[in-house]
Amino acid sequence: xxxxxxxxxxxxxxxxxxxxxxxxxxxxxxxxxxxxxxxxxxxxxxxxxxxxxxxxxxxxxxxxxxxxxxxxxxxxxxxxxxxxxxxxxxxxxxxxxxxxxxxxxxxxxxxxxxxxxxxxxxxxxxxxxxxxxxxxxxxxxxxxxxxxxxxxxxxxxxxx
Length: 160
Fold this sequence. Notes:
The protein has 2 domains: 10-41; 48-159, 2-Layer Sandwich (TATA-Binding Protein), CATH 3.30.310.80. It is 39% helix and 31% strand. The chain has 3 helices and 6 strands. Strands 1, 2, 3, 4, 5 and 6 form a 6-stranded antiparallel β-sheet that branches. Helix 2 crosses helix 3.
């Protein structure tokens, strides 16, 4: 009588099962890590929306004026589709002292602003404004809404 591996308590299937389980766990870990990396790679860029109760052509002219006043350099303008792209570089103080009598001077940092504006008419007397405002590739919703509110206030003053 010859005893095989099964009779001796050895199983080729057990070894293969362990190897297969290890491979699956490594693969599932790699997939999970890749998904997390993709999710964290860049901030989600969503446009900010606002509605201004004025015709689209008036809102367009006002927004172009405001963008110029905010010292943006306008790159792309498509007035027929109401699309605008602009950029600027600003410098901000990040540390040190502004006083010339103190030991440490002021440190500055450049920030890169990127602006995309799109307008869509909503009836005759209303316009939907869509803005993506990025500072150093990070969305800034406060700046988007500030731009929309500046245009809204200016149009309200004109209508009086």
